[in-house]
From TrEMBL:
PANTHER family, sorted: PHOSPHORIBOSYLGLYCINAMIDE FORMYLTRANSFERASE
Top-level taxon in the UniProt lineage: Bacteria
Residues involved in N(1)-(5-phospho-beta-D-ribosyl)glycinamide binding: G11, S12, N13
Family note: Belongs to the GART family.
A cellular component term, taken from the record's GO annotations: cytosol
CDD domains: FMT_core_GART (cd08645)
Lineage, uppermost ranks: Bacteria, Bacillati, Actinomycetota, Actinomycetes, Micrococcales
Keyword annotations of the record: Purine biosynthesis, Transferase
Organism whose genome encodes this protein: Arthrobacter saudimassiliensis
Pathway(s) annotated for this protein in UniProt: Purine metabolism; IMP biosynthesis via de novo pathway; N(2)-formyl-N(1)-(5-phospho-D-ribosyl)glycinamide from N(1)-(5-phospho-D-ribosyl)glycinamide (10-formyl THF route): step 1/1
The gene coding this protein: purN
Coiled-coil stretches noted in the UniProt entry, renumbered to this chain: none
Keyword set includes Magnesium: no
EC number annotated for this UniProt entry: 2.1.2.2
Protein name: Phosphoribosylglycinamide formyltransferase
Catalysed reactions listed for this entry: N(1)-(5-phospho-beta-D-ribosyl)glycinamide + (6R)-10-formyltetrahydrofolate = N(2)-formyl-N(1)-(5-phospho-beta-D-ribosyl)glycinamide + (6S)-5,6,7,8-tetrahydrofolate + H(+)
Length: 192
């Protein structure tokens, strides 16, 4: 299974995938790791692991549509079976989704459909929920919408900060992500 991974941030979830591939416990071929901006920790981690990397820098394009076209073309050039949004913080348009229909996977640090968006952990904490968690789902053109594949619950503790809660969520997020990728690698990418 060939995958392209898209990142915007530090890439700790990506690192879990890189480590599992290096350890031989996950049978996927990481065709490339790409970012929407220069200087991400995720691209650095990929380069350190010897992966092909690319940047389709959002700021280099006149508008979102042009950037989307460039991103879709670059991702398509690797002919992936699956595209993984791993902390990729840009919404892609319907053309991108159509190009990778049923092959664009996202993870989110909350129990969707609750707390979508860029601040899922902060919003859950601010609301005062006692249980939150993470979701692995097919991405569509909405913000953290699309069919849910797997979820895990994480208890909110007294005194939790956004950082402490997010770290515990990420432990579960990485576990679910690896479990999902391993199932797809073994059985093929299912239809959403
Ligand atoms: C993950 O919790 C992801 O769901 C969210 O941002 C985090 C990515 O962290 N959108 P990292 O870049 O993998 O460290």
């Amino acid at each position: 299974m060939r995958i392209v991974v898209l990142v915007s941030g530090t890439g700790s979830n990506l690192q879990a995938v890189l480590d599992a591939v290096a350890a031989g416990s996950l049978d996927v071929d990481i065709a490339a790791v790409g970012a929407d901006r220069h200087g991400t920790g995720g691209v650095q981690r990929a380069a350190d692991a010897g992966c092909e990397t690319f940047v389709v820098n959002f700021r280099d394009y006149a508008d979102r549509a042009e950037w989307n076209r460039a991103l879709a073309a670059r991702v398509a050039s690797y002919q992936p079976d699956l595209v993984l949004s791993s902390g990729f913080m840009r919404i892609v348009d319907a053309d991108f989704i159509d190009a990778f229909a049923g092959r664009y996977l996202n993870t989110h640090p909350a129990l969707l459909p609750s707390f979508p968006g860029a601040h899922g952990v902060r919003d859950a904490l601010a609301y005062g929920v006692k249980v939150t968690g993470c979701t692995v789902h097919w991405a569509d053109a909405g913000v953290d919408t699309g069919p849910i594949i797997a979820q895990a619950a994480v208890e909110v503790r007294d005194g939790d900060t956004e950082e402490s809660l997010h770290e515990r969520i990420k432990v579960q997020e990485r576990r679910l992500l690896l479990q999902t990728l391993a199932a797809f690698a073994a059985d093929g990418v299912p239809s959403p």
